[in-house]
Request: fold
Amino acid sequence: MSFVQTYGPWALVTGASSGLGACYARALAARGLNLIVTARREERLRTLAEELRAEHQILVDPVAVDLLRPAAVRSLEQAIEDRRLGLIVCNAGFGASGRFHELDARRQTEMVRLNCEAPVRLLQALSPALIREGRGGVIMIASTASFQCTPWMAVYGASKAFDLALGEALTVELGKHGIDVLTVCPGHTATEFHQVAGVERAAVGGPPADPMEVVEGSLRRLGKQMTWVHGARNRWMVRANRFLPRSIMAWAAGRVLAKRLQDDDAS
Reply:
């Protein structure tokens, strides 16, 4: 079957106003899927929707919601209504860096809610429709931070470990119903993430990855892998976690991240 037959005719992309989310919207539109794009920034969503409608002659519904609000998932369910949803991209999330005991507690809690609670609520609400169809897909955006602790980004790393475990578990559960689930683990990517997180540069050297390269690579692997780590350097680091004691990996990650944070004396 074609991509549209397997994962269409509609896809939902969260966090679609910029970065990986906007790239997923563009890549899926190029494949002929109609889109429901959601984020908080309504003006950016509308601009993206107009661009994709004009370029690909598809239907695009921009839905401005804050996934931290209790009614957000219900708003998305209403926006989907009787549309045949075939693909869900759980991309919305953010990071924060600094000393754990000094970071804003409310912001840290919001990070957990957006990175962890929101995809749980969203997938519990929307996956039954995919199960009834007996086909479809889910893309869960995790991170290379999923594989080890991240001192000075402690809550972010923990939240992404949650996403990795959730995505891999759903690969098994939903796979029995014909639904493909892929957990995507990017490293340093050219998006707004590091600016929002307060990190001046990546924890590992080298230029940032092209977000569209990450997106296209993941779409090629959907239905073929459980988890995909982007980049040879990142895959090498993930493998190192299997052979070195966790205490050593935690110490090494702390040393590296401390040097990269805007808070120069974090170490």
Summary: The CA atoms of residues 144 and 187 lie 5 Å apart. The first strand starts at residue 10 and ends at 14. The first helix runs from residue 3 to 7. The radius of gyration is 18 Å.
